[in-house]
Each structure stands twice: as C-alpha cells, then as structure tokens.
Design brief:
Radius of gyration: 18 Å
Helix content: 10-25%
Shape: elongated
Number of helices: 3
Number of strands: 14
C-alpha cells in the first residue's frame, strides 16, 4: 500500500508556498520539477484566483486549488492566454476536480476558449497523514477524500465519530460553510476540518456542496492538534484539458486532477 504524505507550510509564506503536496501512490507518475505545476508566475496567478473564493480557512483552501491550476496553466498549457482567460481556465479545472463533471469557457472579446473534459477516474488506496483536533475527534476511520467546501442545511451537531452514539463536540449553524475532508467509507458521514485539522463528523445528508462559499473560521484550529495516519481512497479525475487561441492554434494535454486531504489539488500526468 502506498502512502500519501502532505505538508502544510506556514500561512505567512507567499501563495506559491501555501501547499506543498507529495503523493507516493502507485498508478501515476508525478510531474517533474521542470514541467510541473510549480511555475512561480502561474502559481501566483492561481493563488490570486483561489483567493477570490472565500475568506479565512476557505480562502486558504481555495488558494491551494488555485496554486495548482495556475501553476499548470503558466507552465504547461494555455501559457499564452491573457490573465482573465487564465483565470477562466483555472476555475474550470478546479470545478472539474471537485464535481467530476466536464467544464468549458469562452471569451468573445479575445476569441479564446477552453475546456476540461472529464473522461474517467483513477482511484488509489493509501495512508494519509493529517492533523486532528485531539479533544474533538475520537476516531479516524478510513475515508474517501473529497477536499471541498459544503454548507449545512440546518443547525446540526458535529460529533467525535461517524455515528449518533459519539458525543457532540461542536455544531454548525444553518447555511454555515465547512470544509469536508472526506466521506467515511461504508457510512453516510463526512469528516470535516477546522483550520486545516480534522475536527469531527457530520451526517452526510445534512450537508450540500458549496464550492464558492466562504468559511467563517479561524486560520488555525482551536484546540490541541495531533498527527494521525488515516487509510484513504483518492479518486483522481482523468481529464483532457484544451485551450484554443484566437488565431486557431490549439493546445491539449491529458492530466489527472487529484484531491488532497487538506483541500488542495494536485495535477499529475495521466
């Protein structure tokens, strides 16, 4: 079984350094340094894109998505787009990664267009290292990684484990946004996080996806944090990403868009 290793760097660093993610799972090879998603210009653009999607923790989560997409666009495909069209393409990649559905965009003013066509999925099993709020999480069961923002349908309880027999440790108000780390395997419960650390479990039917919602949350978790190793399933979207320029030129690439437990996204060669 492979291992997923995730390193969250200091929030005080520049957006390009917000999330450094390394996956050692079998099934696909990571992009090399020269061709990967780390181009400073593109990643900086991606951080700017992501920062428009929320505040507090939500802003950091979205920035993590944007850094990956922006770096890829700046160095791999769509590098000759103007800034607004790069933002459009990065947003399409983010939405495809979260929803698993194909996305497209076009700009009549520049004549450019693009698409992210989801053609399949690849799943990998492994162990993920994550931060956990020690006093609020009693169990860390196997999960299917999601890494997306959800919103509560009503005032709901957050529990220490995936079931009503676990004690209530906190709550969410109606329409409050929260970060879902993943879905507990074999149970209809989500693991949620606070400030980058797993903070409890919520019955899945009481949350709905809200990718653009801002999370009203501190950037650091409230409570003692410990490290945990959790068995996880990571499902990557197999995509064909295409950019068409006004002069008729077309660039196309096949990549995997992979969720990570801290709400980020890694772009990998398929």
């Amino acid at each position: 079984m492979g291992q997923i290793t995730m390193i969250a760097k200091s929030k005080k660093l520049l957006p390009v350094s917000l999330l450094a993610v390394t996956l050692g799972l079998s099934g696909c090879s990571s992009m090399g340094t020269g061709e990967g998603v780390g181009t400073a210009l593109g990643a900086g653009l991606g951080g700017l894109i992501g920062s428009q999607f929320g505040s507090g923790t939500g802003k950091l989560i979205a920035t993590g998505l944007g850094v990956a997409a922006g770096g890829y666009i700046g160095n791999q495909i769509g590098r000759y787009l103007d800034e607004q069209d790069k933002q459009r393409h990065a947003a399409s990649m983010q939405n495809a990664a979260i929803s698993g559905k194909s996305q497209s965009w076009s700009n009549p003013e520049t004549g450019a267009s693009g698409s992210v066509q989801v053609t399949g999925q690849k799943s990998n099993q492994g162990d993920v290292k994550m931060k956990v709020l020690k006093d609020r999480v009693a169990e860390t069961p196997p999960i299917d990684l999601i890494g997306a923002t959800y919103k509560s349908a009503s005032d709901i309880n957050v529990r220490g484990g995936p079931g009503t027999d676990y004690k209530v440790t906190s709550s969410l108000k109606k329409d409050e946004a929260t970060q879902v780390v993943g879905k507990v395997q074999g149970k209809n419960w989500y693991m949620i996080s606070e400030g980058g650390a797993a903070s409890g479990f919520v019955f899945a039917d009481l949350l709905s996806p809200a990718p653009n919602a801002a999370i009203d949350d501190n950037e650091t978790p409230s409570g003692e944090v410990t490290d945990a190793v959790v068995a996880a399933n990571q499902t990557c979207q197999v995509t064909t990403t295409t950019v068409k320029y006004a002069d008729g030129r077309t660039e196309q690439d096949e990549v995997l868009l992979c969720p990570t437990a801290d709400g980020g996204m890694e772009i990998r060669e398929s």
